[in-house]
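[Meeting: bench + compute handoff]

Bench side (C.D.) handed over the final construct sequence. Compute side (W.E.) agreed to return the predicted structure before the next meeting so the bench team could plan truncations. Sequence as handed over:
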Amino acid sequence: MKISKQQQDQNLRRLIEAAVELMSRQGFEATSMKQIAREAGLGDATIYKYFPSKEKLVLGYYELALAEALARTEQTSGFERYTLQERLQRLVDAVLERLLPDREFVALTRQLAQQSPLLLLGDGLPGKSALKRVVKDWLAAAEAAGEIAPCDYQGLVAGLFTDGLFGLITYWLDDDSEDFADTTQLSELVLGLLVMVLRSGVINKLGELAAYLLRNQLARLLQGQRGELLQMLALAGRGLGKAVAAAGPSTGRAPEPKPEPKPKPTRQPKTKPASPPAQARQRTARSKP
């Protein structure tokens, strides 16, 4: 019997929610497709019409989570007046906020990235292409507004951002600092450095070489090789800042002030309630479950 698109979407969501619940409780390997289908209230064979394997189901979870996070980002009050860095930061916050209730499940799925790091760094991962298109649009808008220098590699930069977002998620999963303070610091350092590079115009000179070096570091991060990442980024930021200052004023004009966004309701973790927001911008995604 043919079912409507709405019913198909509901079934897909039920399967994903069932997989998250079961895998968080009993592990990835111990959870079968049959168990997921029955937990979702669907037939044993029905699940394969949506996902041919557990691995594809995990990717389906990320596609749904990223789509919801992007929608939350664009619905933020006053978002149209945000600077490029603020837009990127709001997206990072929304993604971590969306993943927070399922943090145990996300940690379980990391084994897929550790076995094949390029899986999460490629364009084939569901949900990443949509993020990349939106970020590319933000870059074009920032260039048109004079906020950043003309950039010949907007698609490349958008791809690097989405790859870096998955690296940040991996870092967040290992972060045992209070209120995920290290993740907060890493996010601010990376985005600040990225915008500084875009304002300076140096990306047009580095191009593909910079992309290769960054992706290499991200692959190491996804495999758990964190090293002294925060110190390295802070040092790079200071060095680039001095170079830009010595070269003269920024090519982008200063952004206009904007009102602070209104706080949004936060989904609570399944185990422990999230800690109160550490900063005025309601970065709830960094509150420990």
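W.E. noted at the follow-up: Residues 72-286 form one domain. C.D. will use this when planning the next construct.
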